[in-house]
Design a protein that fits this description.
The chain has about 200 residues and is mostly beta strands. It is about 0% helix and about 45% strand.
Length: about 200
Amino acid sequence: IASVDATTVAALGAAGVGGSSFASSWASLALPAPKDAHSIHYANNLWVLGMDGGKLSTSTDGVTWSDAYQLPITTETRNVFYFNGNWFVTMRYGEILKSSTAASGSWSQVFDANLESFQWATDGSSTIKIGLDGSRQATSSDSGATWSLVNNFSQMGGGTKAIAIAYGHGLWMSSGSTGNIIWTSPTGNAGSWTSP
């Protein structure tokens, strides 16, 4: 969990979550650049923070952060995540970047959906899905090595945004921006989505 604005990132302190002590357990930490932060992820002993303007910053302890560095794409970073040995960044308009280290200069673009991107999810084995505008998804079934653009949410209607997507207990779930809000699928494939 992280709370961010243009200059700070909030990290959960030792007091834990719950009760009246919840608010006092957060600490404000200075970021390396005055940019709005949109995504933060911890994996492989590294924190990675995604910000406006295609900027990233990293930290090994969550307190001291590297100078912000520029990604090859300069729009806002929507998601930062780590999966099966690689870091991924999704940008606002559906570009997907990949790096094995998250270091400056190590990122390469592996896909461009040319659609506004939202949340990501994985089934925990090899499939990654990223919700997109227009009822679509960017999907990879080989741990992010190759990607395809699919219209998995055609039942939602063409104007719907697949804002949130998640996987758990053998079921894919997605929430749309219009019409029926929650859709489920056992496979995540086109034509398999139903709304309760």
